[in-house]
Design brief:
two-stranded antiparallel ribbon, 50% helix, 261 residues, Muramoyl-pentapeptide Carboxypeptidase, domain 2, elongated, alpha+beta, binds zinc ion
């Protein structure tokens, strides 16, 4: 009798211990992987706040931009297949003090002229805040060797897209190739026509002049620029008025220089 009672008690205790263990393991597994709706909402809000605080243009950026504009710099310098860049020249010496390292769209350090970058940052913020369009800097300043590498690797297939070293405006630090990102991936448009008709690119074009940018290689100007149309290559010209004049007249940079000397 005593043994029978003891055995029953032991079985009951064992069952209780097993149940406690199972419940314990279940709690451990589910805890942390399942959030309540409130918690998810809070996390999303935190992420959005973080993103906005990075993207929103502040007065500090605008002030920095105004001081970064260098009155000695020739923001209208043309470099193309007929006008090589002069390394060691006056512009080049001046540029060295105003090149800054920034992160490109893959997070790698890249150089760009400071005022051009700040203008790009303000435009990026406005595009994000107004249209939810995320543009990132893909490529800006390139040394002779950088351009030689790009030319060797891409020049053969895209002869009219990539300039030879010395003849690339990337040497000025004022030419920016951007990429559009959507949901963490590149907003890839297969053909030039797709790019030109894309609503994102249209919104971007609409913001360029306000921040002193022009399309550097517009459609229909290939004979003058020597480079095929590329909507993602924009050029900082140092002034929103000049950028507006160029776009209003449907000029490329070379034509502006022809008209104004
Ligand atoms: Zn480029």
């Amino acid at each position: 009798m005593y043994f029978k009672m003891g055995k029953k008690l032991a079985i009951v205790l064992l069952v209780i211990v097993v149940i406690i263990c199972i419940v314990g393991v279940f709690v451990i597994i589910t805890d942390g992987s399942e959030w309540s709706d409130d918690e998810i909402e809070m996390m999303v809000e935190e992420m959005e706040e973080e993103e906005l605080s990075v993207e929103e243009p502040t007065e500090a950026i605008q002030d920095e931009f105004i001081t970064a504009l260098n009155p000695e710099r020739n923001y209208l310098m043309v470099v193309n297949g007929w006008h090589p860049y002069e390394f060691g020249g006056e512009y080049d010496m001046l540029l060295k003090n105003d090149l800054i390292y920034v992160a490109d769209c893959y997070g790698a350090p890249t150089l760009v002229e400071k005022a051009a970058y700040l203008a790009f940052s303000m435009m990026k913020a406005e595009l994000w805040n107004e249209h939810g369009i995320n543009i990132s800097l893909y490529s800006a300043y390139r040394t002779y060797d950088d351009q030689a590498w790009v030319y060797e690797n891409y020049g053969e297939e895209g002869k009219n897209e990539v300039a030879e070293p010395l003849f690339s405006e990337h040497h000025t630090g004022l030419l920016i190739d951007f990429r559009v990102w959507q949901h963490g991936a590149e907003w890839h448009k297969e053909t030039l026509a797709d790019q030109l008709n894309d609503c994102f690119y249209e919104a971007i074009r609409g913001k360029l002049s306000k921040y002193g940018f022009i399309e550097r290689y517009p459609l229909g100007k290939e004979d003058i620029t020597g480079i095929s149309c590329q909507p993602s290559e924009i050029r900082f010209v140092g002034s929103s008025e000049i950028a507006q004049e160029i776009m209003d007249n449907d000029w490329c940079l070379e034509e502006y220089r022809m008209m104004h000397g």
